[in-house]
C-alpha cells in the first residue's frame, strides 16, 4: 500500500518549464545563438541550478556572455511571472484534494533551489499540501541520478514499496526508476520514450490520470 506520493514540481505541478524555455530561447536569439527545445530537455530539464548555469555558459561560448544570458533570462522570466503568474498543470487541485482526502502524505522533490520551490508553491497557494520538500540545493547529483528521491524516501520514513513518484520528464522518471520506486509520467515538454512506456508504472495525459493507480486502500 502506498503511504507517500512524491511529486516533481516544474512541469509536473506548475507550468514553469515552458515559460523559462521561451525566455532563454529569446535571450539566446538576441545574441545570435540558436537554441532548441531538444537542447533544453537534454541540458536543463531536471538539472540542478548549478548544472543549468554551466550548460548556458557552455552554449554561450564564453563565461562573460554566459553570465549575461543567465542574468537576462532570469530577469525576463521573473518579469513575466510577476505580470502573468505561473499556471498550475491541468487537474492539479483536484488531484491534490483527492490524495489528501485519503489521508496520504505528499512531498515535493525538485531540482530547483529551496527558495524557488517555496516561492512557486506559495504563488499557487499549494504549499500546505506537502509535508516535506527536498530541493536541488540539498543534493549533489541531478536526475537521472536517484539521490533526490532516495533522500525524499528517507525523510518520509516509508519504504520504496510504499512510495509513488510523479514526474514529467524522462530524466525524472529514470531517477525514480533508479531509486526502485514506482513512477508515473505526466509528460510536459517531451513525450515518453519507448523505454519509459515499458518501465514506468503508467504514462498519463494529466495529473488526474494518476488517481486510478492509487487504489482505495492507499494509506490504510
UniProtKB/TrEMBL annotation:
SUPFAM superfamilies assigned: HAD-like (SSF56784)
Keyword Hydrolase: yes
Cross-referenced Gene3D superfamilies: HAD superfamily/HAD-like, Putative phosphatase, domain 2
Database matches in Pfam families: HAD_2
Keyword Hydrolase: yes
PANTHER family tied to this protein: 2-DEOXYGLUCOSE-6-PHOSPHATE PHOSPHATASE 2, PSEUDOURIDINE-5'-PHOSPHATASE
Protein name in the entry: HAD hydrolase, family IA, variant 3
Organism in which the protein naturally occurs: Aerococcus christensenii
Taxonomic classification: Bacteria, Bacillati, Bacillota, Bacilli, Lactobacillales
